[in-house]
Amino acid sequence: MLIYLTAAIHTLLAGQKISISGRVTDEFNEPVIGANIMIKDTYQGTTTDLDGSFILLASFSGEKKIVITYLGYEPTEKLIEAGTDSQHNTGTIKIKPSATQLEGVTITAGAFEASDEKRGTILNPLDIVTTGATADVAAALNTLPGTQKVGEEGKLFVRGGAAYETRTFIDGMVAQNPYNSSVAGVPSRGRYSPFLFSGTMFSTGGYSAEYGQALSSALVLNTHGLANKTQTDVGVTTVGLDASHQKLWKNTSLAVTGNYMDLSPYTALINQNIDWISPFRNYGAQGIYRKKISENGILKIHGDVSSTSLRLKYPNVNNPAVPNDVSMRNNYAYLNTSFKEIIKDIWTLAGGLSYNYNHDYVKFDSTYQRITDQLVQARFNASRFVGNMFKIKTGVEYFSQVYQEKVDNQQDINRNTQYQIHNYAAFTELDIVFNSRLYARIGERFEYSSYINEPTFSSRVSLAYRLNSNTQVSGSFGQFYQLPESRFLIYSPNLVNENALHYILNYQYTKNQRIFRVEGYYKDYNRLTKYDGDYRYQPQLLNNSGYGYAKGVDVYFRDRKTFKDIDYWISYSFLDTRRNFRNFHQEAVPNFASMHNVSIVYKQWIDQIDSQLGVTYSFASGRPYNDPASEQFNDKRTLSYNDLSANLSHLTELWGHSAILFISCTNILGFENIFGYRFSESPDDAGNFNRIAIEPTAKRFAFVGFFVTFEQKKNNSSQH
């Protein structure tokens, strides 16, 4: 999974080919925010920051033009020549308003968009690798405001929402199973390498009507365009092997990757809190085909297969002398085909087909459980500018999910249940630029699910107002619906969509590569799934009477300017949330919610040793848990969570080829972190319930990897 470290870190840190920087302004010398910067006739591009500046890392030889485009302005070209200097500064590029005007009002620059891309947080692949997350997307995002530290699961919990409330999209298509399968108490890890993606857009609420079936958050991942070189990468790590080969032709590229991960060496060297019989083992392969189908069009086909297994002796809280024998095997396949095309410089068309397959085989002592989850999705959307002040985007979507569960045990032999859902959706969204300061996005989404036979309409509105060239305020409101979790739907067709209302107010100040943002929010949950008893044997216990709320404040500050070669950010989240859902018998703080979360991320490039150092500190206040002996429900709290992690990326060479030595370690100071407790079903003679702490699988995770890139010679005629 980490094979992409070599080329990506080398390019991002050292600028393997050429770094193009500059600033874009309007006719009043105001910065243009969100202008598109592209290398002409390629898919290499970026957008301007809040001060109008940009940095574009590109790979080409000879002369090329960059093209600057922005709504309401004439496209502008600038000639760039890749010479011996690896850095090129274009200076200030001034763009001119287009001749088209609406009611005599010319759109001026700097309207801070109300879109997800402008209100959300965007991390590049290097950010994800150098946050102590060992290239795990979810772990890196957990350093951002609005997220919760739920270490026993390793997934994204956003603003008081459970993990299933965050939906992952790859090139617009749903990734149904974005985490490796695991068992209770063993955290999952994201399946996808961050270096597959040109950017990671993380919206913690109030997101676009284009995306549905997510109560709390949308994680939008967009893959790279056409590859820019032919190369082979080989990686050897303390937990496995990776190899990939990428071939570039004139208008086509193909990349194939194979990887093997085995945690046995790690578990043998690092003391474990789990009695492993067979530690986590994974085999995987991936293929990515990209083809430029026209001057402005691209086709992408991404396939991923993997097989995972683990087995352990699980602590038995009811009989500590006899641990449970738990094992898990998983087979996974994912196919994503997407396209994007621009027709006559007016219409932008995009869409795709995807297939998700996930099969889990879990054994818990004498109980065998087989779960198969398959999802097929098709979507198409089109967008265009209308006049000089409007952009309209509309689309349709369909997915079909088949979910099957088989359970064999002594009490319930050959129980076999399944369901199938056909879900239809359509959306329309309008962006309005009222003037140089005020921007709006208005959207409506319709969905109909055959299994629950319920149509839904959700309205979403976002407004942004620019106070000056560096400051803006924005607000959003949205209705969000999501089907109950599959583990509930499979037992009852009488459930309906859960829903949440989002109210968000945002203030943001940005200048000279510094950003400060504070955001307040309120979420109102209704029709959450609830039950009292064992719903597997009494499905009539399942209902939608649950409810809750989440409110809080998120603060984020990032500075890439003050100190040379240093980038750091600080995030803080305050969360007040309560729910009455699942098997709760009263309203209470859910077990996954902590009131205070803090992250400090520090990254420094050390030129003397060609290395980047990354240090991350994370803190979370105690989480609630329920002690059966207590008179109050969920009134106990764990101790605070603390973690100090560090990593070092060192650029070097091996036999004349670029190489990376990557070292990472979590929880360097050895904090004792406890996520909660499991209690016995019945008390002892003294009335006390036996308990077992839910801890990390090990106090620390240490990783060392060495990665080498073998590049094809520049004079090879197959490269363009």
How does this structure look, described?
This protein is mainly β and 720 residues long. It has 2 domains: 5-113, Carboxypeptidase-like, regulatory domain (Immunoglobulin-like); 118-317 and 325-711, Beta Barrel (Maltoporin, Chain A). The chain has 6 helices and 38 strands. The strands form 6 sheets. The protein has a 22-stranded antiparallel β-barrel. The chain has a 5-stranded mixed β-sheet with strand order 8-11-12-9-10. The protein has a 4-stranded antiparallel β-sheet with strand order 3-2-5-6, with no helix packed on it. A hairpin with a 2-residue loop joins strand 26 (498-511) and strand 27. The longest helix has 10 residues, at 5-14.
Core attributes:
720 residues; mainly beta; Immunoglobulin-like; Maltoporin, Chain A; 2 domains; 22-stranded antiparallel β-barrel; 5-stranded mixed sheet; 5% helix; disordered N terminus
Write a concise synopsis of the structure shown:
It contains 6 helices and 38 strands.
Number of helices: 6
* Mean model confidence by pLDDT: 84
* Unreliable sequence segments: 1-8, 10-16, 99-121, 715-720
Count of the domains: 2
Measured as a percent range, the helix fraction is under 10%
CATH class descriptor name of the largest domain? Mainly Beta
Structural class: mainly beta
CATH architecture of the largest domain: Beta Barrel
Radius of gyration: 26 Å
The CATH topology of the largest domain comes to: Maltoporin, Chain A
Overall body shape: globular
Largest sheet, if any? 22 strands, antiparallel, barrel
Report the portion of residues in β strands: over 45%
* Span between termini: 28 Å
How many β-strands, per DSSP? 38
CATH superfamily of the largest domain: TonB-dependent receptor, beta-barrel domain
